[in-house]
Structures are given as structure tokens and as C-alpha cells.
């Protein structure tokens, strides 16, 4: 309800009560005075009549002393009227008796109502007119101010929907309102400036200024973090070189190259996939790199040929040989490789592709990919659908530990059982599930399984990853609301995770759904923060409880001041939002120490605590698994 309406209701109720009190008070005073006067007139008439009778004077001389008296009678002891005299009549009369010698006096007079009705009516009419005039004058004096309040509320509603809406009051009497408006505007501008400064710091550290893609440092950090992951690690790195850019730069200048670079970067951005956590970067003036986790040789070949085909569509100067535009070198990696080795082998593959002459691609080694993981799209769809039908998803729970070394919550890690009973990481099957449109079904199955596990184990906060495909699916959202209604008591333990990349692109669209889920006391966590360099403006639209730093920011953070600066700038952004920050992928005591010094609220990783099918009690103190883990 609007404030002006609430205020109006309060004023109306209080004025009504005040008017009633005034009416009751004045009428009470009038009644008391009238009653006293009425009794006095009756007593005076009785005494006057009694004295005439006792003095044996002629009774005809008895007259009414006031208009209240209507009639008097002298009645003997036998009950007979000896003398009677009428002075008037009334529509409402009363009588009074007074004993005298030889009988009593019977006095008929007007009642209080008939005697003072006209005076009562006049008094109340005057009172009503007085109050009415006061209200009219007050209304005229307050109406101009009330209109300003209503206008301010209308402006506030418009400002809530559009922060660019401006308003200002010209009346000098409202300088306070204008001052408050200016202060709020200054605060918003400062906050936006802080977000811009934060984004600028991070972009200068990790982004290429010309294309908006990550730079070499960004790419190497992401590749390092992939190689540090706990489960199976494999995939491909592609180095794409557009060597004719040097020729264009020499002949037409940097501006011409910038326009072409932008077109090539738009082609490569298509391969940024948050589900697969693929990364695209510009690692040198003419070279781009793509990190593709969990892909096989067939998928790499499809992507390489697609890039070659799309690069031919970019319009180039006539002096450029269109047969020699793009060369791609590919290296397939696994856990045993290092970042330096992978990039060196991809570079050698690039040189091999260049030796062939025309635009083309070359793979350094495709024999590293586990044969068990090579599946076509049809086989993947069949395997995932079978897992859904047979409930072949296994849930592991990894504790997230606070700085006090107590369990803060658990994260659910979904695994799919393969044909040989091997557990397949979600990072492997989720990209294929996305292509097949099965992610909402998987998220639904995971939520149902989580409820079953919570009912059997300890009630402790559980973080559950829900993919953007599910949030944007109307059927899933309707089901989720019904699911939360059924599990109201458990809902307050849910923490829904969503990746920063997808959330930043859909923040406004998801705000209403998040608000609906919030009504069930569900909390929200933004996952993979820092995997991509993004503006944190989404925090202005959504009520978020936690941020979780991506492993690439945490890996070797004690030796990476640029990552520490990233975290400090992020902390400045969330300083007034009461958002806790956690770090995932922690793999050493030095990382934990550095993160604690930076003020991170909690940590997660195999070094801290391994995933298991058991849910630990909330706030339970635990020991770090550390290097005893067999990787």
C-alpha cells in the first residue's frame, strides 16, 4: 500500500475519533448544565406553590415561574383533586410530587428532552458547522502539500522501474526532499562508479582491450585450474592464428585491423559455453586460443572446420590471399600435462598447419582421450535418458568449511553411472545434456534425490546447482514452485547455485522467479565467479546470499597478486550487501592461509574435504583431509 494512502487512513481515523470525543464532551457538559437548570426550575415552582398553600392565600394567584411548568394540582389525602390549573402542553411531559399538609402537590412539567430540545439542536448544529469549517480550511491548506506527497510517490514508483528517471521540486519549501533525492542519486552514482572501477580493475588485469576477450594471463589461469580439477581431466586447446593481420596493419593501420579483429572475435565467442566452461582468449596480436574441456577428437574437428568456414566470410582487403587466412593448431590434453606443455604442443601443431600452406588445421596428438568417453550425440542422449529413466544418478556431498573449520553447508555433486558402473562427472555429461534439452529433467531428478537424502540424514544447508536452461524453462519453474510448497520445511535449507556467466546475461529476466522462490526462505549462491570477467551489476537486481570464487582465481593465489586484487575489488562491491564469499578448488594450506588473510568466509576442495555420500552435521568441526588424498 502507498504511504499517502496509509497516512490518509491514519489521519481519517484519528480525526473521526477526535470529532466523536468533542461531540460527546460538549453534549455531556450541555446535558449536565441543562439538568441542573431543569431541576432548579421545578424545585422553585414547588416551593413557590407550597408557600402559597401554607399561607392560605388564594390559589388562583399561583403562576408558572418558567415555561417548563405546564400544570399544577392540589390533591387531598383521599386522592381527590381540590384545585387544578393548566398553563400549557408539551409533546413530552413529566411529573413531580411534593407532600404538603392535607395532601400533596402534583406538578406537571416538560421533560428534559422537550424543555431543551431546541437549545440542544442549536448547540450541535453550531458545533457541526464549526468542525466542518475547520476541516474545509485544513483541507485547503494541506491539499497542496498532499499533492506533492502523491506526486513524490508516483515519481518513486517510476524511479523504481527506471533509475534514469529524474525529478525535482521547484518549491523552496521542499528543499529537504530535493536534498534527499540528490543524496540518493549521489549514492547510486558512487555505487555505479565503484562497480565500474571494480570492472575496470579486473578487465585491465584479465581482458584484451580490443576484443573484450580474455588475455594470455586469463587463459593460462583458466587452463591451470582445469588441470587441477579433482576428477578426470581431458579436453583440447586450439590456437587460431590470423597471420594476414600483420599485412593489413602495415598497409592500412591499426584501425582497419581493429575492425577485422572484432569480427573474428565475434566468430570465436560462439564457442564460449558456461556449461562446458570453455574459454576464448586473445593471447597475442594475431593469435586466439580456445579451451574446450571434455571434448573428443570428432567435436574438435567439427569446431575447427566451422571456424575455418566462418573466417572465410569476413570481408578482407583485395590484396589479401583468401586461401591463406586462418591456421589452427590443436593439442589434446589430460591431467598429466602442464600448461606450458599444452601450449607448446598446440603451437607446434599450428606450425605444422602453416607448413601445409592454405588455411587449415592440425592436431598434435589425439591419442590421449579415454576411449570410454568417446560418444556421439545419439549415444549420449540414449545414455542420459536411460539414467533418468532408471534413476542412475549418484549424489555426493562435499562440505564447504567456514574459517572456524566448521561445516557451513554441503554442495551436491551429481554423477551419472556409466555402462561399466563408472561414475561420470557432471562436467562431462552436462554439455551433452544441454544439447539434447535434458537439463531441466536432470535438475528435477537431482532435487528429488536431495530431498530423499535430507529426510534420511542430517538437516543441514545444501547447495544445489540449477542450470540456466532450467530457470528459463516455464514448466520447470512451475514444477519448482509446487516442489517448494510440498517441501516447505526443507526449503529453508536449500541454497540454489547458478553460474555468474548465465546469471549476468539474464538477471532482469530471472528477478521475478528468484523473488517467488525467496518466499520459501531459499538462499541463492552465485557460482563460478571470476571464470569470466563480468560486470557485477546483476547484484543490483537480485538478492544474493553467497558468491563462490572459481578455482582459477584460487589456484596458487598466494603467488598471484592479480587474483588477490580481483578478490579485494569484488569485496568492495559486496561490502554493503551482506554477501558471504567462498572459494572452491582449494588445494593447499598456503591457499587457505592466503584466503583467510583476504577475508574469505569459507573454502571448499578435495584438499579440505572429499565428497562423500554422507551429510555431515551443520557446524560440526572437521579435520582437513589434506595431502592424504590419493589423487
UniProtKB/TrEMBL annotation:
The keyword Glycosyltransferase does not apply. Residues 377-625 form the EAL domain. SUPFAM superfamilies: EAL domain-like, Nucleotide cyclase. Signal peptide: none annotated. GO terms for molecular function: cyclic-guanylate-specific phosphodiesterase activity. It holds the Pfam family GGDEF. The chain crosses the membrane at residues 12-31, 116-138. The keyword Magnesium does not apply. Gene3D superfamilies: 3.30.70.270, EAL domain. Keywords: Membrane, Transmembrane, Transmembrane helix. Residues 233-366 form the GGDEF domain. Coiled coil: none annotated. It comes from the Bacteria. PANTHER family: CYCLIC DI-GMP PHOSPHODIESTERASE PDEF, RNASE E SPECIFICITY FACTOR CSRD. NCBIfam families: GGDEF. This is GGDEF domain-containing protein.
Amino acid at each position: 500500500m502507498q504511504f499517502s494512502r496509509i497516512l490518509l487512513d491514519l489521519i481519517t481515523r484519528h480525526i473521526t475519533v477526535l470529532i466523536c470525543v468533542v461531540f460527546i464532551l460538549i453534549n455531556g457538559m450541555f446535558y449536565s448544565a441543562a439538568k441542573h437548570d431543569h431541576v432548579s426550575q421545578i424545585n422553585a415552582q414547588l416551593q413557590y406553590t407550597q408557600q402559597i398553600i401554607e399561607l392560605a392565600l388564594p390559589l388562583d394567584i399561583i403562576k408558572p415561574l418558567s415555561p417548563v411548568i405546564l400544570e399544577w394540582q392540589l390533591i387531598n389525602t383521599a386522592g381527590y383533586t381540590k384545585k387544578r390549573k393548566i398553563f400549557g402542553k408539551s409533546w413530552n411531559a413529566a411529573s413531580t410530587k411534593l407532600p404538603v399538609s392535607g395532601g400533596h402537590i402534583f406538578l406537571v412539567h416538560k421533560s428534559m428532552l422537550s424543555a431543551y430540545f431546541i437549545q440542544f439542536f442549536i448547540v450541535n448544529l453550531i458545533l457541526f458547522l464549526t468542525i466542518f469549517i475547520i476541516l474545509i480550511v485544513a483541507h485547503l491548506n494541506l491539499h497542496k502539500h498532499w499533492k506533492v506527497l502523491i506526486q513524490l510517490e508516483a515519481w518513486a514508483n517510476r524511479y523504481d522501474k527506471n533509475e534514469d528517471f529524474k525529478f525535482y521540486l521547484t518549491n523552496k519549501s521542499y528543499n529537504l526532499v530535493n536534498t534527499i533525492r540528490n543524496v540518493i542519486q549521489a549514492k547510486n552514482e558512487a555505487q555505479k562508479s565503484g562497480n565500474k572501477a571494480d570492472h575496470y580493475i579486473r578487465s585491465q588485469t584479465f581482458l584484451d582491450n580490443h576484443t573484450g576477450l580474455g588475455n594470455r594471463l586469463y587463459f593460462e589461469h583458466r587452463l591451470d585450474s582445469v588441470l587441477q580439477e579433482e576428477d578426470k581431466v581431458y579436453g583440447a586447446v586450439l590456437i587460431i592464428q590470423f597471420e594476414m593481420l600483420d599485412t593489413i596493419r602495415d598497409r592500412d593501420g591499426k584501425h582497419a585491423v581493429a575492425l577485422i579483429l572484432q569480427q573474428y572475435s565475434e566468430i570465436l565467442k560462439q564457442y564460449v559455453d558456461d556449461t562446458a566452461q570453455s574459454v576464448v582468449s586473445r593471447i597475442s596480436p594475431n593469435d586466439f586460443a580456445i579451451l574446450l574441456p571434455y571434448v573428443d577428437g570428432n567435436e574438435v574437428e567439427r569446431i575447427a572446420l566451422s571456424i575455418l568456414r566462418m573466417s572465410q566470410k569476413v570481408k578482407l582487403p583485395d590484396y589479401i590471399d583468401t586461401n591463406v587466412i586462418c591456421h589452427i593448431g590443436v593439442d589434446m590434453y589430460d591431467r598429466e600435462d602442464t600448461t606450458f606443455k599444452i601450449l607448446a604442443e598446440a603451437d607446434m601443431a599450428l606450425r605444422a598447419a602453416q607448413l601445409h600452406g592454405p588455411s587449415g588445421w592440425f592436431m598434435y596428438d589425439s591419442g590421449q582421450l579415454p576411449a570410454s568417453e568417446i560418444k556421439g550425440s545419439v549415444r549420449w542422449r540414449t545414455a542420459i535418458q536411460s539414467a533418468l529413466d532408471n534413476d542412475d544418478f549418484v549424489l555426493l556431498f562435499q562440505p564447504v568449511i567456514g574459517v572456524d573449520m566448521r561445516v557451513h553447508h554441503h554442495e551436491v555433486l551429481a554423477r551419472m553411472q556409466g555402462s561399466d558402473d563408472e561414475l561420470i562427472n557432471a562436467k562431462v555429461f552436462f554439455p551433452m545434456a544441454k544439447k539434447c534439452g535434458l537439463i531441466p529433467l536432470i535438475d528435477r531428478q537431482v532435487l528429488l534425490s536431495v530431498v530423499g537424502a535430507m529426510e534420511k540424514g542430517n538437516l543441514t544447508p545444501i547447495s544445489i546447482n540449477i542450470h540456466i536452461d532450467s530457470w528459463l524453462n516455464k514448466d520447470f519453474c512451475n514444477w519448482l514452485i509446487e516442489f517448494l510448497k510440498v517441501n516447505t520445511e526443507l526449503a529453508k535449507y536449500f541454497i540454489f547455485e547458478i553460474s555468474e556467466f548465465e546469471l549476468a546475461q539474464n538477471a532482469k529476466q530471472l528477478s521475478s522467479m528468484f523473488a517467488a522462490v525467496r518466499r520459501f526462505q531459499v538462499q541463492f549462491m552465485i557460482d563460478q565467479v571470476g571464470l569470466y570477467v563480468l560486470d557485477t551489476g546483476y547484484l543490483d537486481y537480485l538478492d544474493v546470499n553467497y558468491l563462490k570464487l572459481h578455482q582459477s582465481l584460487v589456484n596458487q593465489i598466494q603467488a598471484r597478486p592479480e587474483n588477490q586484487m580481483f578478490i579485494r575489488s569484488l569485496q568492495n562491491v559486496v561490502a554493503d550487501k551482506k554477501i558471504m564469499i567462498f572459494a572452491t578448488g582449494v588445494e593447499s594450506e598456503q591457499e587457505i592461509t592466503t584466503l583467510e588473510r583476504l577475508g574469505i568466509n569459507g573454502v571448499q576442495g578435495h584438499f579440505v574435504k572429499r565428497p562423500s555420500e554422507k551429510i555431515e552435521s551443520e557446524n560440526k568441526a572437521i579435520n582437513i583431509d589434506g595431502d592424504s588424498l590419493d589423487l
